[in-house]
Amino acid sequence: MARRLPTIGDVARAASVSRQTVSNVLNSPEIVRAQTRARVEAAIAELGYRPHAAARRLRTRRASTIAVRLDPFVGGISGAVLDRFLHALTERAEAKGLSVMLYTATDAADEIRQFRRLVDGAVVDAFVLAATYYGDPRTEWLIEHGQPFVTFGRPWGIADLSDPLHFWVDVDGRAGVRDAVARLRETGAQQIGFLGWPAGSGTGDERRAGWAAALRESGIGDSELVRLTVESEDGVAEARAATRKLLAQASDLDAIIAASDTLALGVLIETAGALPVVGFDNTPVAEAIGFSSIDQRVDEVAAAALELLDLVGHAEAGGPGGHRLIAPDVIMRAQGPALGLVG
Amino acid sequence: MARRLPTIGDVARAASVSRQTVSNVLNSPEIVRAQTRARVEAAIAELGYRPHAAARRLRTRRASTIAVRLDPFVGGISGAVLDRFLHALTERAEAKGLSVMLYTATDAADEIRQFRRLVDGAVVDAFVLAATYYGDPRTEWLIEHGQPFVTFGRPWGIADLSDPLHFWVDVDGRAGVRDAVARLRETGAQQIGFLGWPAGSGTGDERRAGWAAALRESGIGDSELVRLTVESEDGVAEARAATRKLLAQASDLDAIIAASDTLALGVLIETAGALPVVGFDNTPVAEAIGFSSIDQRVDEVAAAALELLDLVGHAEAGGPGGHRLIAPDVIMRAQGPALGLVG
Asked: Where does the signal sequence lie (chains A, B) (predicted)?
């Protein structure tokens, strides 16, 4: 087996510093103490570390392949957004001469085993990861091993969102929900509630924050915010129960924004369509039944992911950084009068 | 460039016979006239034609890759079944050490260009095609060029469904709809209508045929069958209009079977949930809203497709043949009372 190329982790260990410090030396040397910088630079020279060796390989190979994880089909309404992203990515990749290779994984540890297999087999040249989360060990591994990658999803929990080692594209759910509040107000709604996921998911918390920010701007206080929102797991039955709870504590609601189309469907069924609702993801269900929803514009997300892959390894210290935050679209639909559907 | 390997088409041209005749000589020589057989065998020997050279390559290569076409996301409810199939195929392929590579194509001619690119680049070892149709030129090309493939979808319009050169797996939509009629009768329904796609699509015609066969068995005549069915394009609005037409000509209906969940949703909205409906594909929408639907069991389809890929090139004359017809599941759900949803 060929000798393993040194990683950023090897440099960090040799210099007795953190990986972040090595990253800083490479990208923002002015913020690192001179003594530390000298130690890191010595370790880099000694080990022969080359940042993004694999990124250069990506640009020089003629037939390039991107690996994308495809999860088991889990049912439900909202999961379709990642399928839509895959469709858009595959089409746009092909237009750039890139192919998409799929892999599966049962958990993060298994996914890292898959990274190893794909990298060792020289089968793929870059990774596109979706659904990042707090403390995601996958991006850590890819950075450590100099593999080019882009994530659909920001690096949750990392203070420096412009880390030049982590290129990402994400949808600004906070801005989307804020816009939805404004659009509902244009239709005359005054009391606007929020049906969200339990706290702790990055995307769900951002969506709730957009709603809270819009309400605070119009002078609504914290205790009132608490009254106007409830949490629910992402299922139709759970959303119906949560809607009953929400209406019990806030019978004056004019409209509800939900963190997903699944939750929105629960609101719709529970209220017999009487209360305007805005979901999230603009799924085929929202289109077919006819209710408002926030569209993630996955086609733009795919385009941005591929643009960023071109840039991996080219990031300049102090440059614009390798990330894109896409503003979603609020798709308003006229919700018909109650007509009777199911119980 | 390497000399092109002779194809079955080259043999057919050299012997002045059809491709089917060459296939027959290879697989069912007893049905071919002795004189013709001799001419074909001479051409095979002269050209050095080896059937399924690529199939043998598939079995000897260690890292094998299957190509699957991924179409642009078109919205709608029913398209999700091919995404579900892709998820199942990717998982099961990986368990067998196979990877899935995606490609896109704008039409059949473009798809054949993609075949050529993938074959010339030695990028993939076999193809899994979905959505076969009458006069499908893609399978013709793959057979002609000795490329191992399996289709999800039978070879529509080909009389010999057990052609040893075309391995396929399909879902028995006719049996599924027949079962649905029986299940609806168990619930007390007597007059069961059918909302189908316009005639001419293989899958749609099979589904309608299952309904018609079940009704004929209980003594219902042809003119009555005409009264109990209408056609609709696959959209919710179109299905609502078609439902009005169907109920105008058959106000005595107890239940409706629809060729898709999209059509079923149109029935459901138009009838305010009052009439039991059975859709097709058991989509997330059917599950979330709660109506009956026929499930294609795509996981079994994926398993069968991979089993068949193992067999490509091993088909024996007079053997069991390389195809599987999967019986779908009728998922019956209690449709709640009208509760009011949208207009």
From this structure: none
Chain-centroid distance, C-alpha A216: 25
Q: In degrees rounded to 5, what are phi and psi of residue B64? A: -110, 150
* Nearest C-alpha in A relative to B70: A87
CATH of the domain at A319: 3.40.50.2300
Dihedral sign for Cα atoms in the order A192, A197, A199, A201: negative
Contacts of A342 in chain B (CB under 8 A): 268, 273, 289-291, 335-336, 338-339, 341
Residue A197 DSSP symbol: P
In a domain, B339, yes or no: no
pLDDT at B78: 67
Q: Which pLDDT score is estimated for A52?
A: 55
Are A182 and A290 contained in the same domain?
Answer: yes
Residue of A nearest to B291 (CA): A342
Residue B90 has pLDDT above 80, yes or no: yes
Closest chain B C-alpha to A287 CA, distance in angstroms: 8
Which residue in chain B has the smallest CA separation from A75?
B284
Q: Are residues A103 and A203 in the same domain?
A: no
pLDDT band at B5 (very low <50, low <70, confident <90, very high): low
pLDDT band at B326 (very low <50, low <70, confident <90, very high): very high
DSSP state of A31: G
Tokens of A295: 């569209």
Smallest CA–CA distance, residue B175 to chain A, in Å, is 24
Mark which residues 82-121 of A lie under 8 Å from B by CB. Answer: 83-84, 86-88, 90-91, 94, 99-104, 121
Same domain, B167 and B309: yes
Q: What are the chain A neighbours of B84 within 8 Å (beta carbons)?
A: 73
Is the CB of residue A76 less than 8 Å away from at least one CB of chain B?
A: yes
Mean confidence (pLDDT) of chain B: 85
Query: What is the domain count for chain B?
Result: 3
Q: Smallest CA–CA separation between A153 and chain B, in Å?
A: 21
The verdict on a CB contact (< 8 Å) between A102 and B104 is: no
Average pLDDT along chain A? 85
Tens-digit pLDDT profile for residues A120-153: 777 788 999 988 888 889 998 998 888 899 999 9
Residue A343 domain-assigned (yes or no): no
- Distance from A18 to chain B by nearest Cα, in Å? 36
State the Cα–Cα distance between residues A226 and A205, nearest whole angstrom.
Answer: 14
A262 and A245, same structural domain? yes
Compute the Cα dihedral for A239, A244, A250, A254 and give only its sign: positive
Q: Is residue A337 part of a domain?
A: no
Specify if B336 maps to a domain: no
Domain span at residue A28? 8-47
With a cut of 70, say whether residue A38 has pLDDT above it. yes
Residues A104 and A13 in one domain: no
The structure tokens 């024996």 sit at B316
B290 and B305 housed in the same domain: no
**Among partner residues B94, B121, B262, which is closest to A288 by beta-carbon distance?**
B262
